[in-house]
Amino acid sequence: MLLRRLSLATLALLSATSALRADIIVFKNGDRKEGTILNESATSVRLRYQLTPKIPDEKDFPRADIVEIIRQRPSELALKNQKLAELVPTKDMMGADEYERLIQDRLRPFTNQYAGTPEATQVEQIIKDLQAEKEKIVSGQLKVDGKWLSPEEVKRDDYNIRAYRLRNEIKITAASPKWEDWISALRVYDRFIDPTNGFFASTHYPTLIPEVLEIMKNYEAVLLKMIREQPVILKAQTDSLGRLVEPDLTRTKNALKQATDTWKAQYDAEKRSRIRWLIPYKFDMASMTEAHKALITERAKLQAIDIEALAKQNELLVAVFRYLADENAVESEAALDSAVKAAGSNNRDYSKIFADLRGQVVTLKNEIQRKKNAQRAFNASTAAVGGGTAPIKDDRVAKALAEAEAGTKPAAPETTDPSAPIGATAAPKTPTTPPPAPKPTPSPSPVVEEESGFPVGIAIGGGALLAVLITVMMLQKKKTKAAADEE
pLDDT averaged over the chain? Predict the structure, then answer.
């Protein structure tokens, strides 16, 4: 038992050692064999290699057929097997957390294990590149179609970016060899074209249509094969049950019934939820026929779309989203009008998104007008305050007030020509006798004219100046009369 354990441990050690290195034999005819060289002689080289991914093999190769032997270091082999060099260039629209996971989970362990090797230096550079890109993501930038968008561009293209993410999800899911995953991809496609929360107004929808048609083509091939084989499978199942005896017969029947019931329960639940792409069952002809019918119906809709016209229309719609982000109501409304005119040739219903965008344009216009009105009111109030106080500080008015307070005889107040510009000085006129004091008249409230272009502040200031001059004249008259009475 001890010898057996030692033998197993030795084999495990040899296997581990072999996994740490790899050798490549290059033959004169151009072929290459990769594996582990077990021993060498003057005439041959013995190599352990994988005949298939699961079947190992060992073989002696004549040295006369060998042109080169490449011996790989463990770090070289690890870099190749872990595919770390393939991490750059990075894929589109990665988040900061994805960058951090790549660095900590895949790259740092390599540099720690193979520190000091050329491969570790190469991986350190990859880490620096990923950290630099992560900083861009943190600052609000985003990589789309291999190009980096600024935070402002990300904000403007938010709708299109979210559409691109969903399109990528469809492509990744559809790349699976399992037809069940193709159904999942078609379900994501239904989210993409949803009238309420979908993205069929994006520039990615015209590009997605051929990709979805390819998924449908592959899925239809599987469906038709299942439909053709269903009678054969049912007959084979019946024949197999006929050859069974108890208790195997009952056990097999129960297992088949349980599988059918499980599928049926899920199928009915998804159907009630109005999921269009349902998973058919190879023993149920009705489910396969229904799946094929749904596929044909949607494919006909997609094939009827004028993709070129759709691309032009969606370019305009995406422009509407961008102008709305820029708070440009005029351009967004113009782009929307053009998109509505261009939509006539397509059978997809765009009425809801047109209505939604129209509502956003109206909301933006109202908001812009509200801001303008608020700014005008602020400017008017600021001008009124500034225009009402400035004339009171006029030197002439200050001198008249000072003379009235001192009881001296002031010069007659200057008169102004109503037709003269505000602020113009008229020629002074000194009367021999004080003129009768005019009755004070209430100063009319100034009328604020928003669009006339007349300076509101100047009008208010002129009115205030006139009122002050009248008051000074009345004070002067009283003082003159009092002086005459004393004489």
Answer: 82
- 217: Cβ contacts below 8 Å, ≥ 6 apart: none
Determine, yes or no, domain membership for 164: yes
| Nearest of 203, 209, 208, 170 to residue 321 by alpha carbon | 203
298 and 231 within one domain: yes
Q: Is 243 a domain residue?
A: yes
Q: Per the structure block, which two tokens stand in for 158?
A: 């938010």
- Average pLDDT of 44-56? 89
Quote the pLDDT of residue 212. 98
- Alpha carbons 387 and 379: distance in angstroms, whole number: 12
377/380 Cα distance (integer angstroms): 5
Residue-wise pLDDT tens digits, 415-442: 444 333 333 344 444 444 555 555 554 4
CA 146 remoteness from chain centre: 15
Q: Which of 230, 330, 223 is nearest to 279 (CA)?
A: 223
The Cα angle at residue 418 between residues 414 and 420, in degrees rounded to 5: 85
- 141: exposed, middle or buried (Cβ count in 10 Å: 0-12, 13-18, 19+): middle
Q: Which of 304, 334, 361 marks a domain boundary?
A: 304
Q: Which residues of 103-134 are buried (b: 16+ CB within 10 A; e: fewer)?
A: beebbeebbeebeebebbeebeebbeebeebb
Domain count, the chain: 5
Burial label for 52, CB within 10 Å (0-12, 13-18, 19+), is exposed
Is-contact 98 87, C-beta < 8 A?
Answer: no
Residues 381 and 394 in one domain: no
Q: Whole-prediction pTM value?
A: 0.63
Alpha-carbon gap, residue 360 to 201, rounded angstroms: 15
CA distance 226 to 471: 105
Is residue 247 left, alpha or beta, with left meaning phi > 0 and alpha meaning psi from -120 to 50? Answer: alpha
Whether residue 149 lies inside any domain: the answer is no
